[in-house]
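Bug #2210: token dump truncated for hydroxymethylglutaryl-CoA reductase (NADPH)?
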Amino acid sequence: MSEDIRIPRDANNDHTNEMAKKRREFLKEKTGVDLKYTGEYTIDPAVLPGNIENFTGIVQMPVGIAGPVQINGEHADGLFYVPLATTEGTLVASYSRGMRVINECGGVKTTVVEGFMQRAPAFIFQDAREAREFGTWVTENFDGIKAAAETTTSIGKLEHIHQWSVSKTRYLRFNYTTGDAAGQNMVGKATLAACEWIKANYPVPCQYLLSGNMDTDKKHSHLNMLHSRGKRVIAEIVLKKEVLARVMKVDTRVLAGATVLANTGALMAGAAYNGPHSANGIASLYIATGQDEANVVESHAGLLSHQLLENGDFYLSVTLPSLIVATYGGGTGLPSQRECLELLGCYGKGKANKFAEIVAATVLAGDISLACAVIAGHWVSSHDQMGRNRP
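Reproduced locally. Full output below:
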């Protein structure tokens, strides 16, 4: 490759203001674009190693605050002001409206059921019988496999291994708890150590691929809906008939009928989520708080459940079975992202379940607001007024 088209780098210290400026000047020469606003930032590039390569500047996202929302969780308990990073007009207002309804109905109840992170190696044998026998050996030697995996981490704990046979291959899905880290890299390193231990101790020669793609990293899968990847968290509320009528101008019986129609439409479409828009709140919260944004594709999947009660009130819940969140490590420690986590009381160790409950509560608030806006006819008009069609 010709040297004159290589992006400038400093092998000794690449995360500096000087190198960022040099790259912006290089790009202006090559493309004619002056990255003026990208080059205006306040953080010290020295905090960025491990988060970004070829650092050139900062893309600034506007952050709005929704809420407060009353959460009655096992980990998140109280009123929370929720930071949402977005460029979509009406979004913050809509979530705030849903949170108002939640508050007037006594708050949202949140529960973290379980949480795992996976790596799924595939072991290859001479035939299907060898693969089957290997599976039995894995079950019998789980303690040794667990000990080998956990030599690489003080936080990650191997809890169980799922197994499937296909042809002459045995797919294993290692399930770990990972503390307050999302844990994808953690479990990859741990599983590599476990696989090497297996290869050294299993009496029959075998080969393996560290990921046989059943961990479904950065991809939605129905397997995660059943077995949980990240946190399985549930947010639920009983919407009072009179509150919904007064605030949203919607009757609960109409909402029940519309929800049935929406469930059918989602089923026909094969959607990963049958509610109105889980990804909006999750993505906005993830960007604001330094989560791995690609995890939205897994985390937004879920199930919206409802029941029209005999007194006319309306039970509504959202189940997110693969909500991948972190409050420690990765991008969570960057200055503005850390501030947003601190706003929620969720920065640092021991806070991941609390953050998961806040995310689920936010998703439920957004679904209440959008569903009612569609029914009441405010969906298009609110975007006309506040978002899409500004002159």
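Output looks complete on our side. Residues 352-376 form the longest helix (25 residues). Marking as cannot-reproduce; reopen if the truncation happens again.
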